């Protein structure tokens, strides 16, 4: 038997043992998946199988039969806060601080403007993660133009050195969307506070994948999407966290009628509501919102620590399989090896990334590509197993054998 075959057999056996001991393994049945390996839950989470029936009820009974009565009787009006409270334990927040609605981009706008206002006069700089997902940078720049702040792009590790008496706010990503690097939320939050500034964290790539600890680490404001690890569906609404201690002073730049203290009073003057409701804008997108609410059922009884433990074990195992199967030099991991610096995805730099990902997808291994040369593989602990990780690495090696080195189109 060849050495490669022995290695493959060993790794497959290890995968089977790890899957058998996995306390989250049974969760996979809650999702609509096929025989392939879905490693793109860090972009669009899979559909929980019970969701279509719940959405059908929203459409046919709540809307079709109850019509306008559903704003009260089906709890439509209070859905943004109610669903925020469902997300809260997943990101370490007590109830009453998260409101669901709008896109992440819109919530970045609300949070950055509000953070600048919370910081007060005399501070004119907003530090923005220089490696950020682009929308955060675009929105922060536009917000700064409106509020008269100056944007300072800074790599997260350099934030402590860049902080000063002029810093009003800092916008950071908890996990980098490209490399999968996990940033030091407790340490950076403490540094921002020591400088007297306000921090806004983007949790898109961490919520549902690892513990965040918003309250424990005294985060000021945070935003995140729900269509990745929270499986809320394409375009599902995002959320905004405003720490309770800031709520009374939270001054939204989008004070729509849904955030009014008396929305049905229809008064011409604006008076903000108390609590997380203050982060609302206009009429919520009820169908998407209730789709998300149903999808969150898959988290019932799941400790986030168990998710984190499995995520690290999965990404470790995938990296080990890649190392065993893939000839040296064809891919390089840009995801940190240290657990304290790793989110729930593995990003591999590969000169032939484009044809390689195309062929992987053709063979049922669905990851994605961040141009020009990064292959991303997201590990969603609720439905990805160790056998999936082994298979994905093995097929990656087979595909790399078909695509010659230096061939960026083939
Ligand atoms: C870190 C991060 N921020 C923001 C977004 C996008 O936000 P939106 O929901 O507005 O499309 C993404 C999307 O993938 C993201 O990864």
From TrEMBL:
EC annotation from Swiss-Prot or TrEMBL: 3.7.1.3
N6-(pyridoxal phosphate)lysine: residues carrying this PTM: 228
Keyword hit for Transferase: no
One Gene Ontology MF term: kynureninase activity
Pathway: Amino-acid degradation; L-kynurenine degradation; L-alanine and anthranilate from L-kynurenine: step 1/1; Cofactor biosynthesis; NAD(+) biosynthesis; quinolinate from L-kynurenine: step 2/3
Gene Ontology CC annotations of this record: cytoplasm
Cofactor(s) required for function per UniProt: pyridoxal 5'-phosphate
Keyword tags: Hydrolase, Pyridine nucleotide biosynthesis, Pyridoxal phosphate
Catalytic reaction(s) noted: 3-hydroxy-L-kynurenine + H2O = 3-hydroxyanthranilate + L-alanine + H(+); L-kynurenine + H2O = anthranilate + L-alanine + H(+)
One GO process term, biological-process aspect: NAD+ biosynthetic process
HAMAP family: Kynureninase (MF_01970)
The protein's name in its UniProt record: Kynureninase
């Amino acid at each position: 038997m060849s050495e490669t075959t022995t290695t493959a057999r060993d790794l497959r056996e290890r995968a089977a043992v790890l899957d058998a001991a996995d306390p989250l393994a049974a969760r996979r049945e809650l999702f609509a998946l096929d025989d392939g390996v879905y490693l793109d839950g860090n972009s669009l989470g899979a559909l929980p199988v019970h969701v279509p029936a719940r959405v059908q009820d929203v459409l046919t009974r709540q809307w079709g039969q109850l019509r306008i009565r559903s704003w009260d009787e089906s709890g439509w009006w209070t859905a943004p806060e109610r669903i925020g409270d469902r997300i809260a334990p997943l990101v370490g927040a007590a109830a009453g601080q998260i409101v669901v609605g709008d896109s992440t981009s819109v919530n970045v706008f609300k949070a950055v403007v509000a953070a600048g206002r919370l910081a007060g006069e005399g501070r004119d700089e907003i530090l923005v993660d220089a490696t950020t997902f682009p929308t955060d940078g675009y929105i922060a720049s536009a917000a700064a133009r409106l509020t008269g702040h100056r944007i300072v792009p800074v790599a997260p590790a350099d934030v402590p050195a860049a902080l000063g008496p002029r810093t009003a706010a800092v916008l950071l990503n908890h996990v980098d969307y490209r490399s999968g690097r996990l940033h030091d939320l407790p340490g950076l939050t403490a540094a921002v506070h020591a400088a007297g500034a306000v921090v806004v964290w983007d949790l898109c790539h961490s919520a549902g994948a690892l513990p965040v600890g918003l309250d424990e680490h005294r985060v000021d404001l945070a935003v995140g999407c729900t269509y990745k690890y929270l499986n809320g569906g394409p375009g599902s609404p995002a959320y905004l966290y405003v720490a309770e201690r800031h709520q009374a002073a939270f001054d939204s730049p989008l004070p729509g009628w849904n955030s009014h203290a008396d929305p049905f009073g229809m008064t011409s003057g604006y008076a903000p509501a108390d609590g997380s409701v203050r982060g609302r804008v206009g009429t919520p997108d009820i169908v998407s919102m209730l789709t998300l609410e149903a999808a969150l059922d898959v988290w019932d009884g799941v400790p986030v620590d168990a998710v984190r433990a499995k995520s690290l074990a999965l990404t470790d195992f995938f990296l080990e399989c890649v190392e065993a199967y893939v000839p040296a030099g064809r891919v390089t991991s840009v995801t940190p090896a240290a657990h304290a610096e790793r989110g729930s995805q593995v990003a591999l730099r590969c000169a032939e990334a484009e044809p390689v990902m195309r062929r992987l997808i053709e063979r049922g291994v669905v990851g994605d590509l961040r141009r020009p040369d990064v292959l991303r593989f997201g590990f969603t602990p609720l439905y990805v197993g160790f056998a999936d990780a082994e298979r994905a690495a093995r097929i990656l090696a087979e595909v790399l054998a078909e695509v010659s080195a230096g061939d960026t189109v083939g």
